Amino acid sequence: MKRLVILGGGESGVGTALLGKAKGFEVFVSDKGKIKDKYKDVLVKNEIEWEEAQHTESKILNADVVMKSPGIPDKAPLVKQLVENGVSVISEIEFAAQFTTATIVGITGSNGKTTTASLAYHILNQEINVGLAGNIGDSFAKQVLEDDFKNYVLEISSFQLDGVVDFNPDIAVITNITPDHLDRYNYNFEEYIASKFRIAMNQTKDDYLIYDADDDVLVDWLEKHPVQSKLLPFSLVKKIENGAYLDKENIKITIDNNQIIMPTKDLALEGKHNIKNAMAASTVAHLLKIRKQTIRESLENFQGVEHRLEHVLKINKVQYINDSKATNVNATYYALESMSAPTVWIVGGVDKGNGYQELYPFVNTKVKAIICLGVDNEKLLENFSNMVDVIVETQFMSEAVKIAYKIAEAGDNVLLSPACASFDLFENYEERGRQFKDAVRNL
Predict the structure, then answer these.
(1) 32: which of 39, 45, 223, 286 is 20 to 30 A away, CA to CA?
(2) Residue after which a domain boundary falls, among 271, 301, 331
(3) Which InterPro entries does the entry link to (predicted)?
């Protein structure tokens, strides 16, 4: 009996434990922190051995295969030791994929991957049997065990891709690549790009890679490191023979001479970046033979993703917008770009080595006041204090929203788009977004 050790007792860890047990592995789950009660109950009920608040090396180093949670860096001493001992350390995506024959759509990128994955799933779900997993929703491994969908849309982070060996999606999507998480990649952008492109490394000529042809990082990388798969680029500015492009107000998608045309004026999501997300998701749907009418209707009625440019409430003609999911500068760039009214901007958190220069034009033209919400706001103050009349600091969401309420006038926007990670003041970006929404509702 092979021994499967799982590092991290969260959604992906517990899902993998269930699948591993069902497939005849001897399973042990180890978490350095506390395991949430809801996950503990599942482990106990399924008689899976586990530990928390420690890693017992004698029970881990004897593994045949280790699945580690994406949050644990490759540099962790225990992980290094396992690798040195020749133990295969993989991600949940790699482990679960070997137990399904489903068609897999894998979506990665620095920004837009959650929206693109949710949108693709929303379209496909109208006509075919499909699951949504990866970085989003229920664990992929658990779905493979319990639901056995015929198709999966997987949102995949670079950390998950670092742990793949044979994983090969039938359709891969790379939305874009901008500097993010560089703290995990030795502050080397090339390493981070290589990590994202692992999504296509096992693809064959029968598979597809959909990518943004306007992103120089992607285009240059593909020139230097060709892939086996068929390329289907999308673009807002170039005419694309095979793939998707914007022709005035219409998205045109051509695959093997079969063309569909989608008007953009009725897209539920606003902003140029969402036209790109719509192109990527529609190309996936077109490949999987979804009807044009279904694609069109789905693009028009898609509700968007929580914490991503989410319109919360209008109070005294001021629109409050929750973009807590903007954990890097590029995401906030899209948010500010799509603002069409004077904006009070709430920003800040854990800086991942951000450069804010690309935001200057928007801050100069659209932002009337900045509220810094972080433990250390020095860099924000350095960058922006000469650009706006009002810049204040706080460490409480409720206070940030009250200040915004005082500053904003009828017709303005109040935008939470932090451009940073949330871990200094919040558990995660979801908690940050929920606190914002609660504070707005309590005004």
Answers:
(1) 45
(2) 301
(3) Mur-like_cat_sf (IPR036565), Mur_ligase_C (IPR004101), Mur_ligase_C_dom_sf (IPR036615), Mur_ligase_cen (IPR013221), MurD (IPR005762)
